[in-house]
Amino acid sequence: MAERLRALGADPAGTLAAGALVALVLGTLGVVAVYSGGFGGLEVWDWRAVWFTLWQAVVSATVSAGLAIPVARAFARRRFPGRTVLITVMGAPFILPVIVAIMGLVTVFGRSGLANDLLGWFGIAPVSIYGWQGVILAHVFFNLPLAIRMILHGWQAIPSERFRLAESLGFSPADTGRHLERPMLRDVLPGAWLAVFLVCLTSFAVALALGGGPRATTVELAIYQAFRFDFDMGKAATLALIQVALCLLALALSSRVAIPAGFGAGMDRDAPIRGPRGWRVAADAAMIALAAAFLLLPMLSVILQGAPRIAALPGPVWEAAFRSILMALISAFLTLALTLSLALSIARGRRWIEITGMLPLVASPLVLGTGLYLLLRNVASPSELALPVTVIINAVMALPFALRILLPAVYALFTDYGRLAASLNMRGFARMRYLTLPRLARPLGFAGGLSAALAMGDLGVITLFADSENPTLPLKLYQLMNSYRMTDAAACAVILMAISFALFWAFDRGGRLNAEI
Amino acid sequence: MKNSVLALLLMTTPAMAAGPEFTVYAPDYFASEWGPGPKIKEGFEAICDCDLKFVTGDVLPRILLEGEQTAADAVIGLNTDVTKRARETGLFAPHNEDLSGLTLPVEWTDDVFLPFNWGETAFVYDNTRLENPPASFDELLNAPDDLKIVIQDPRSSISGLALLLWVKSVYGDRATEAWEKLQPKVLTVTAGWSESYGMFTDGEADMVLSYTTSPAYHIGAEQDETKQAAIFPEGHYFMVELAAQLATSDQPELAQKFMDYILSEDFQGMIAEANWSYPSKLPADQLPDYFAALPRPDKTIFLNEDDAEALRKPALDEWLNVFAR
């Protein structure tokens, strides 16, 4: 078996997966364009949407990544009771369904929210969450956890021996920064920035709910309008193409900035970094406290609102919940399998695959859905395809995040252990089982958790395949809202949040069974 | 991967039904147990000896995509702001119904699209939070800027589009001026109605763009009489939901039966409390008391589909010019 695998190499899997991704993202785009007889022209409003989308994504990504550095550093160099739990819980906003997050943000930062009450006590005029500032606030809320986790992984990837060496050489915090932390950040930060940038690029619901009005129109909304109200699919295809172009541009830029840190392999000893003393202890504590308050209060407010009504929710909500969990699990394992084959291929030197792995992030769900629909309508009835297609789309949508999380670890694996493995003639399943999977357990767990949670919260983006007989939990949430049942919707939101988080926790925990975070 | 897809496919293959399958395309909200869908399904299956299947989602885009290959036998839930494009496809067949008994506030003569319920757009407020609501559209425009309303985006929601046409109908050439006055009071513009309404019930906004019938839900289902619709003498925009049968249906008898069923007492009688709007053919005395007692505007503004389609683009540009500044 191993021999056969060797003959095939592990690469065909990666190439195949990459090819499938390109076909899915660009192929569907092409199908839509062909169907509509070419790409359509854009109006002045569309160009404004492109511009707004671009600058808010740049600002959101920069603010998120910038704020994440001190928080991640504080977490990396301090130990305190409840630290692990706090890190996990603070990751939650990223996996929150947009609608739930907006509910929470409005309760805390809205007109009658906690933040404005607090400002009122100090006699400061209320600030408005609505407008570009709301869009950026929400995007930072969503993506700060992602950035913190990615950068924290970077810190943890510096072998603790290097820190001990620094300590024994009497490095000041500035020296540590120059020789250890900054090289690591140059390696990790561009990837983190890019991930946040790309998430914000395709934002639809956030921009609309908190954007205040059409000034904050994103490309994704323009696509929605072109499709839903103007039935102008050529225009939708053009806009989708612009999104892909922006993605490729950002990708090219960030790959120029990123420089591998090359710390070499360590002994994996769990020796916590001893952080600098003095005022820096208080500063680190303040960073963690502020970030925790910012990320956790909105979620707490959603829980307080919805929890009392959970018992009163009707049975179909629970059925939908179980259906969603099953779909999320399948989707997560699919993501992991795809990501692992892509990442191994990339680490063997096929850099172009990395670009294909980022594509799904900017694929317009609407265009993807329409393209698939046009392709598959003669194969099977759309409602029979609804659940499988949703699962596949969710798996593909989570792939870029999983790839970002996995790649640094896979690179490190190749540089640090690649030669050793080669000299031991370790190949195929043996290598997978004794080297690859154990060394990647932590990022795999994290990536799997993320994929499962994202799939859980996704609102079956593909309305074309809607399946009314098998609704998912997010769809139920919308149905409740659409039937005026706002308090039941809040209860449903709490369940959705709890399940997303539990899925994330279970995977993440599984990956860290043998390691301190 | 292939296996899991196959497994999922098998898992979701529907069970064999008793009678022939009758497919109706409907908007998302229809299918939930809180919407009218399940009651319609139950009621129609009792008389049709068939298996009614709702396929929910974007009804018109889907019909346009599928063209003559559509699997739909009938559609339900379109409205006059989009029927022009639906009609131009030539995919729909006449409904063959007698329209004389309709209880709409406007005259309805369309032989293709059959109304099943209607309502009017209105700004809804909470009378414990807003003691002096604007009594007219003009008063709303001239209200202090700290009166905050939430509206929906006309590019992504049917109610947002209705507001656009409402303002255009009331203010005509002065629509831009009206938007300029309204703009400072708009807290935010949401993608859909549900996000707006959620913000309103959370106390984030004083008024929300909704329907004259919205208070009925709060009275009927929650015994809460604090939510009210502000009634404006300038008139309110008429919104009607329509059904139609497809000319391409391979079950024209069933489709016709479905059209008949829509105007039946059984169907009409459940609309008020299942869809929280006025049934299209039911005398007021057969409505629940609180429903019949809802305040109604004196003037109903109705744009036929040609006018709505002609106004949509220029009105949208006017709105964008003010709101995107």
Shape of chain B: globular
Number of helices of chain A: 21
Which sequence of SSEs, written as H and E, runs from N to C of chain A?
HHHHHHHHHHHHHHHHHHHHH
- The total of helices of chain B stands at 13
Average pLDDT score of chain A:
81
How far apart are the termini of chain A? 36 Å
Number of strands of chain A: 0
Low-confidence stretches of chain A: 1-10
The whole-number mean of residue pLDDT values of chain B reads 89
Helix-strand category of chain B: alpha/beta
Structural class of chain A: mainly alpha
Q: Helix and strand string of chain B, N-terminal first?
A: HEHEHEHEEHEHHEHEHEEHHEHEH
**Rg estimate of chain A, integer Å:** 23 Å
Give the fraction of residues assigned to helices of chain B: 25-40%
The largest contact between protein chains, plus residue counts on each side, is: A-B, 73 and 67 residues
Strand content of chain A: under 5%
Shape verdict of chain A: globular
Secondary-structure blueprint:
The complex is a heterodimer of chains A (517) and B (325).
Chain A: H1 2-8, H2 11-35, H3 44-77, H4 83-90, H5 92-95, H6 98-109, H7 114-121, H8 132-157, H9 160-168, H10 173-201, H11 205-210, H12 219-228, H13 233-257, H14 279-306, H15 315-347, H16 352-362, H17 365-376, H18 382-423, H19 428-457, H20 473-482, H21 486-511
Helix pairs in contact in A: 2-13, 2-15, 2-16, 2-17, 3-8, 3-10, 3-14, 6-14, 8-10, 10-13, 10-18, 12-13, 13-16, 14-21, 15-16, 15-18, 15-19, 15-21, 16-18, 18-19, 19-21, 20-21
Chain B: H1 2-12, E1 21-26, H2 37-48, E2 51-56, H3 59-66, E3 74-78, H4 83-88, E4 92-93, E5 114-126, H5 137-141, E6 149-152, H6 158-171, H7 175-182, E7 186-190, H8 193-201, E8 207-211, H9 214-222, E9 227-230, E10 236-246, H10 252-262, H11 265-275, E11 278-279, H12 289-292, E12 300-301, H13 305-323
Parallel strand pairs in B: 1-2, 1-3, 6-7, 6-8, 10-12
Antiparallel strand pairs in B: 3-10, 4-10, 5-8, 5-9, 5-10, 5-11
Helix pairs in contact in B: 6-13, 7-13
